[in-house]
Amino acid sequence: xxxxxxxxxxxxxxxRRYEQELDDELAFHxxxxxxxxxxxGLDAVQANRRARIELGMRELHADAARRARGLAPFDRLxxxxxxxxxxxxxxxxxxxxxxxxLAVPLAAGVMLYALFAAYALHTPxxxxxxxxxxxxxxxxxGRLISNFHADEAxxxxxxxxxxxxxxxxxxxATLPLHGLRPAKGMGAAVSDNFFRLTGVPARLxxxxxxxxxxxxxxxxxxxxxxxxxxxDGAPDVVGRSLQIGGRNFAVIGVTGRDYSGxxxxxxLYYLRADDYASLHAEDDPNLLDVEVGGxxxxxxxxxxxxxxxxxxxxxxxxxxxxxxxxxxxxxxxxEGVLRAADREEMLLAGLPVAIAVLLMMxxxxxxxxxxxxxxxxxxxxxLAVRAALGAGRLRLFFHLLGESLLLAVVAGLLALxxxxxxxxxxxxxxxxxxxxxxxxxxxxxxxxxxxxFALGLALFAALLFGGLPAWxxxxxxxxxxxxxxxxxxxxxxxxxxxxGLLMGVQVAASVFLMVLAGLIAxxxxxxxRVALGFDPQPLVSVxxxxxxxxLAEHLRRQPGIAEVSATSAMPxxxxxxQVAAVHDGRSDVVQLRYVDAHWWSALGVAPRAGRxxxxxxxxxxxxxxxxxxxxxxxxxxxxxLGRSLQLRVDDDxxxxxxxxxxxxxxxxxxxxxxxxxxxxxxxxVYLPAAAGSAQAPSLLLRLxxxxxxxxxxxxxxxxxxxGEVDCNPMRLSDAVRIQQTPFAVARWLATAIAWVALATSxxxxxxxxxxxxxxxxxxxxxxxxxxAQRRDVIRHVMRGAVRPIxxxxxxxxxLALxxxxxxxxxxxxxxxxxxxxxxVDPLLLVAIxxxxxxxxxxxxxxxxxxxxxxSD
Amino acid sequence: xxQPVLPxxxxxxxxxxxxxxxxxxxxxxxxxxxxxxxVLQVEQGALYPALHRLEAQGLIAAEWGVSENNRRAKFYALTRAGRLRLGQDLAQxxxxxxxxxxxxxxxSLEGLQA
Lengths: 872, 114
Prior knowledge:
The complex is a heterodimer.
Chain A: H1 2-13, H2 15-39, H3 44-55, H4 58-69, H5 72-89, H6 92-121, E1 132-139, E2 144-145, H7 150-158, E3 164-173, E4 177-178, E5 182-183, E6 187-190, H8 194-198, E7 202-205, E8 219-222, H9 224-231, E9 241-244, E10 247-255, E11 269-272, H10 273-279, E12 291-296, H11 302-310, H12 313-316, E13 326-333, H13 340-378, H14 380-388, H15 393-430, H16 432-436, H17 448-473, H18 487-492, H19 496-529, E14 539-542, H20 548-556, E15 561-567, E16 578-583, E17 586-595, H21 599-603, E18 609-610, E19 623-627, H22 628-634, E20 644-650, E21 656-668, E22 684-688, E23 698-703, H23 708-721, E24 730-731, H24 732-775, H25 777-785, H26 790-826, H27 835-860, H28 865-871
Parallel strand pairs in A: 6-11, 8-10, 17-22, 19-21
Antiparallel strand pairs in A: 1-2, 1-12, 1-13, 3-6, 3-12, 4-5, 4-9, 7-10, 8-11, 9-10, 14-23, 14-24, 15-23, 16-17, 16-20, 18-21, 19-22, 20-21
Helix pairs in contact in A: 2-3, 5-15, 6-13, 6-15, 6-17, 6-24, 13-17, 13-19, 13-24, 15-17, 19-24, 19-26, 19-27, 20-23, 24-26, 24-27, 25-28, 26-27
Chain B: E1 3-4, H1 10-19, E2 23-24, H2 25-35, E3 40-41, H3 44-56, E4 60-66, E5 72-78, H4 80-104, H5 106-113
Parallel strand pairs in B: 1-3
Antiparallel strand pairs in B: 2-5, 4-5
């Protein structure tokens, strides 16, 4: 079979040579037979003539030989393509419009696929990747808890299930790095059997020997990306020192090409889990950040491995809080850099974009179907002639479909080119914040699978937009007999109703997309314009350290740091806990934030009434400061100062975690420090806490100059006090951007998709009305000759365009409203009532659509009636 | 009197002719006709599609060479797969002929009636 395919490909790729040889072979036969006949006594002319007669028609034999070679289907395809090409090259305007209309949504589809493939489908180059698995925990409520505590991971690794070849542990690490220069990037702390199990090869030096070999101590393994980023790809990197979290590690090797880790963010280096633990001691049994993975034995199974781990779940996680304890551990096959749950989340997040792209495709397909209907209708005379000459329905159908298929293939290739040009800039735009923060993105490639996807999508679209008009034109109705279309009926066929309907579908989809884009844009604007109540620019948050109080004091002494404050949760990175505030016989829900005495001065604001906390007051003083919103919630009548309040919050079992009566000593301005969407200025009650206490583990710094140099100095100062623990200083302006970026990206994408859909619809309307004007030229001429005003004629033509626009609005707007209702029922964080989205944007769309229709309609009234009458 | 080849047997005849040694199309034709003592009359135009089909199936291999009259000609030679196929087809042909003879022989026919 392979030999046959190879022979066929050989002939296809050397077609000219094959034809020449076929010709030579038959010519040789003729010469031999002629020579034979001459030897028998005939003269040369007669011998040649008789030889030719005996051989018969050469072209017929050549055709039979081509068929025997299996070339016939390719020849037919080529002929159909040539025919389609001739047809398209006679209408370059149509071909260009159709290609643009189709290529843009196709390119969007290809880019979406490439992103999905890079993050969800692309598998790291591991040995036995088909047997790659990971452990996944489930609590009593069936909730998925994928990660483990370092001690739990160590226990699992010590006794892996017999069905597995072994287990490794893996956790992401974001420690400050210093190779040739200070740098930031993602690393991983893994068990020392990681490379042995995964089979990742070494490109330079060696990987770990494993089994706690002392020769592996204090060593680091770089990935190729890490080697280039941290050491500029120096060939003598092995043996050099890389500072991680303030401590030096010797580079012992570089992993093989094309390996950039098993996480969605590229991994620069690998540390042994033991070394990481010495850097980053963590006592909290609820800190679950270690992934446990492994490989199933060739004679083992995931079910057997799951069964072996299931019984150990409860004992393993007994030190966790009750709501985090596991009742079951499953072993789950792993594919790609995302785990199953993360992949589902990615699918969920990408679904709206995929739907939007599909809608854009639908608009493009409806548009092209409309253009093709007009084109086919204009060629119905040609079709009628073909039918009269005996062409069957199927033959006519494929004749009409040929152009669509050619358009689809060319548009698919064009889309691939567009995607290849735009993929990287768009990827950088979407995930730019991560790159700015020092993390390295995975490479997103437009590869062979993208080509297949593009062509598949293009052919699917071609069948949609090409099949419908072709079927409509050759359909077995309107007096056409089964099997064979009636030439007369074909000539009369004019699918005006279908064209109006298709136009309506386009406008409806465009309206839907415009409203959706408007809603997303509105929410993005809200997130961007929210008044924080303070300037985040000079502020930097610092992750809590073991000795937070000493760290705060040390940082306070550093030049360039104007103020240091402690608080319970880093602003914008975590939500605040809710507590019940009982007062005057009633209870309200407020958010609780612990802060020290420097909180307001660090933020650069002062309490609007009363005072803040004093540095000399003990942390458990029965006092509180309330936000203005909380003050008006709790005491709408005013006068909150001096009032008393009981704060209470219980755990699941009803045991009080906090039960404190406090007196309000100050009222602060409302500050947005949590989620910026929905209602960012919540009612907050502030309680005093000391830096380094359990209530206030995070620090907030106010810098005199928030430059990278000052932030690097903060990093160093952290390392001096907190050992090698990474305090991960983050500018608050970046934290704000982390929240705003998804919306900004969604707004950008939605707006682009909506405008492309609108532009496509307008091209369709322009074509629809333009075609109607050409078709009705004679009737319009008669109207004008009978004394109709030019504006009456324009109005008459416009009526045909207004109908699909109204239809589109009547379908698109209710659908968009329905979607808004669904979103509103799912979350209260998003604003789903937006005047701009539901009124201004659709009106803008109608205005642009009317303009697109008016331009060709105007032409109907600019021709002299006599010319119109002569034209048909 | 010359007879046209039985339908479906041209490829077997071509394989057999080529098995005698590499040959160009015209020589294959002559071998079939002479080999059948001029009984089988091959339609000249039908031979080339059959040769191309055999070549596409990998049963014969083609190579351009110089003919006995010093002309450039395409020579066909049997491949290993072709030799195997020829053996199978010949065995099948013999079974077919034996069956035909058995059926068409007068004795057998009487036996069936009994």
